[in-house]
């Protein structure tokens, strides 16, 4: 979808909510799979308030390219960089294309689809053990049957989403997201779901609850393996078993029972797709939320997929004001750039495009990629794919299109990043910044009607989940809807 499916997540949520309100339904099974369809469906169902259970469709089969397994998305970015740098010729690229994304299902890495499915299970909206069943696995039939049975019992028990969407439920979701090295996009979706449920939950909580949580899922892009390996190792229930006391086990699952009743004993030696506490990928969570003069309301970094050598960095900015400008200049051999340069892409946020596309993994400039440079500090008000990686500071708020400081950065301005201190600052004196702000004015919108115009006028910033302001709780629409009793005895 152009410019991005994220533009339509909230429209999907509205559609789901209105369908559930307008028909005489008692409960709902949500069938979804990819990045925005799961959170969009969940957001709508939470606002409608009916008993709800989710069944996702799983990951696609694993392909092979020249003897190695292909992780969808992550392998695409790596191979594309090889092609840009001249390490893979056109014939090799065509060969790679033939084996990429073959088969039904979502990406088979820890991209947004798999991350969101696992977090949905952790929240108690999907049956334990069902979120990572591969698309072609026969056990999916049994999972579907049991999900349907549970939907009926949820109606009889009046078991609504509010039973699981509690502060402890969101705390578990944040810790699980850190432990799996999940997608940064899930942070936005969790914020939006919490906003629909009326639960106090902020982006900082993903960082705060992740402190001390080991990254145990050895799955791309943070690790080596694929989501099928994670499922074979026991999936979310086994991950929770390894996390032990870090999990709020009194929080309810979709079965209606607490996690204490659903978590199995730890098994295995912990050197596969789910590592042991003594052998984690990293020891202090997968995310950092940084703030400062460049991101007053925050920006997020996926530390588990970034370069630690860049976590303390000062360098000059090279600014791109649009995706088109970035694509037209990034491979220019005359580009004034060095490995210390901080690449900045502004104007790509929720209002700016609109829809906040996944443009945040700015390519390494071709002249540097050819020299072997594999990572740089990159800063943007947009997102990146959950399959992506690198030292990319994302979701900068406020965005450029509403007057955020990221829109005032100029080439050569010095930028300071301190991940340990959680700071991201533009080293320009306040008088100069005030002068720049006084000259700023919003760009005229090309969208004068329809959904894009409504979206731009009402979408919240990234630190609030990019939902529409009139859909957040508490609103009149959030009051519990009691369906008609047509057909009941």
Alpha-carbon distance between the two ends: 45 Å
- DSSP helix fraction: 25-40%
The class by helix and strand makeup works out as: alpha/beta
Number of strands: 12
Unreliable stretches (pLDDT < 50, length at least 5) are 480-489
Q: Widest sheet: strand order?
A: 10-9-8-7-11-12
Indicate how many domains the architecture comprises. 3
- Name the shape in a single word: globular
Largest sheet: 6 strands, mixed
Gyration radius, in Å: 22 Å
Number of helical elements: 15
Helix-strand pattern: HEHEEEHHHHHHHHHEEEHEHEEEEHH
Q: State mean pLDDT (0 to 100 scale).
A: 93
Percent of residues in beta strands?
5-15%
Question: How would you characterize the overall build of this protein?
Answer:
By secondary structure, the protein is an alpha/beta fold. The protein folds into 3 domains: 6-60 and 107-261, no CATH class; 63-99, no CATH class; 287-439, IlvD/EDD C-terminal domain-like (Glucose Oxidase, domain 1), CATH 3.50.30. Helix content is 33%, strand content 12%. The N and C termini lie far apart (45 Å).
